[in-house]
Records
---
Amino acid sequence: STIADANLSWETSYTSNLALEFGILNQRITGTIEVFNRDSKDLLQDVPISRVTGFSSTLKNIGEINNKGIEIELSGDIIRNREITWTAGINASSIKSKVTKLYGGQNIIWWEPTGGDERTKFMYQEGQSTLAIYGKEWAGVDRETGKNVWYMNNDRTTSQPTTVNGRPATFRHQDASEKILGDVHPKLFGGFNTNFAWKGFNVGMNFTYKIGGYTYDAAGRDINEDGYYWERIMAKDTYDNRWTPENKDAKYPMRIAIDLTDALQRGSRWMNKADYLRLKSLNIGYTIPKEIVNKLNVSNARVFFNGQNLWTSAANKLYDPEVNEYGSRGWETPIGKTYTFGIELTF
């Protein structure tokens, strides 16, 4: 439950845009370029407070953020004559969103507002992204013991010290300190398409892509930790790549059959690169010549195939790269492949 702050005020934004629209080569190539800058002040955010008040959070004006970016869209005719039409287009966006000021100067930890305990954890810090993932930095798996190792990122002494890549590390998750681990926002995202038509035959393809940024496997963290969680299930990837005495170079640590052993170990272990390229849609069709269909008392006939999400190349292959706006993979149903065949007749 949330209680309002008595000094609450409206959030305000100051925006400037500059756009250029153009056409060259007798409009054979057209496009737009737009740059924008938006400063938002008195940003509204739910902030955790002591539960002694009877409430878990309060809505406050916490600071200021800046969003700026550039969006480019180009399209053109590669070939256009009586027999062949071939067109292509591309769009690309690069947007940076940064915390520029925090009232009081203190960092603010906040959680993805959707989902349950598996939500992604973020931090607002001046000069950092508005979607900066916050948690402990995973150092990998100890080859000899099969245990998780975490970078310390502090000056504490620990009862289970070790060193990874020359940096102080620990087997005890609780002895490591949290830090900003990465940015959800990609460096570049968009799509491109092409359409080709020749003598009644046509092919159209539409691709989407993302370059840079991270996603967070919130659902995977919930069930694929090193102890058996309440679901008592294990992903095939986890089973095949877990540490065993015969597989000491494993990607994941050994499994420990104790409920809730470390089911709350949030950290960079569950972060994955967000880069991907996907064939979002494919359309193929053929319009049967009129001299053939007219004999059947049909004015027009066309056969077609439509496919959705037929091919994807992604830096992380464990789950669908199209996650929610917080970069979090939860319990949602993955986007499936679809195939549609059909015949269109006009009488």
---
Amino acid sequence: MRKFVLAICLSSAMAMAADWKLSLKPRADLKADAPVLVEVTVKDAKGAPVEGAQVQLVLTMVEMDHGATKFDATQIRPGIYEAKPKFMMGGKWNIEMRATKGSESATAKQQVEVEDQ
């Protein structure tokens, strides 16, 4: 068990924070209990698209502890990634965007309001 934990810590320590800008754009109204298409844009410090990154969304509710729900995004164009997160209920949610490519990674958070169905 200790070797496993140590490996995770070393792996995290080797990732370098990239100077990337991550932004999120819902393609429809955010409603509870229905997958909603969202677009994540990943650009480098010069504004160029970051291609071939692994992008993940992590959802956490602001006012209640439902744990974290993760959704992988797929690249649809250079620097543009799509995911279909599903929010379990209406209310305020945090969406953390995580992008990793090689040894570089970046994160950004956005708070959204999700409507009840």
---
Amino acid sequence: PAATPGAEIVGDGVVRITVPVDVWFDGRRVCDVRIPCKIGDLQQLELDPRGRFPDAERDDNRWQP
């Protein structure tokens, strides 16, 4: 499969995808990200796992099937 821009393997079965800041500077509020796995293989998806950005509701940043 084609490499996903901004994707790096950071651990056993863990992939971090970084979205360039330019996406938000141009005023967009939505960004499509392709995850390099099959949906059946996905165990968890988490936005901003290191808590680096302001977020009023961190509890909704994690999804598990």
